[in-house]
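Researcher: Good morning. I'm working through a list of sequences from a screen, and I'd like to move beyond sequence-only analysis. For each chain I'm collecting a predicted structure so we can compare shapes side by side. This is the next one on the list. No need for commentary yet; just the structure.
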Amino acid sequence: MEASIPYTETMPNRKKFIGANWKMNAAPVGWDASDSPYFSMSNIDVVVFPTSIDLRMCTQKKLSVGAQYGRPETAGAFTGDIAMQEIRAVGCTHVLCGHSERRQHHEESDEMISKQVISALQCGLIPLLCIGENADQREMGETKEVLAQQLLAVSNVEGMIVAYEPVWAIGTGKTPTAPEANETHAFIRSLLKDKNTRILYGGSMNSANAAEFLAQPEIDGGLIGGASLKPEEFRKIVDVARAS
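Model: Good morning. Structure tokens for this chain:
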């Protein structure tokens, strides 16, 4: 049975969203069904993005679950890929599109990523579009130009979530200041047709800096990588989001 979409992206008061991107890692040690309440609270949305192998296991625990990638085509000679409708069929509600690691290691273009976003929406999934600049682009003052280009094909799309992930901050422990990130989020929002689109921060957020980031008016949550693999650390971030 297909899971129902629990909300829409047009709500006037933007609900906080915390995503746990487990990347190519198994379910974290110490995480089990007892954590389910952290994934089903009414005042924030918490979604886990496990490997494709673990999608069904997580949906069976009645969690909100998203895939880390989906192919826009419905079928064909795409060895190792997974189609959007297959993701939806196992009970997922979300899918990541354009994560920086997919852009880097799989050379996904903005054109391909825009097709993923449209395909996800057509299949009843909520796409979470990831955008961000690398260290060289930041150093050259090209951040806004890069973000605008990455958003160009989908800026008029309604029903998605956007995650700003400064590539230079991912896994490095480096982060922009919270006000700097807020300013970038405001710029991203100015490019979007749907001004109620939730925009997440996705660059090394952890329990130590979550409160500062989540207090910013333009930051609607976080896409958490490394910290989501540490159950106690992730719970702290969720608690901060719930209180913000």
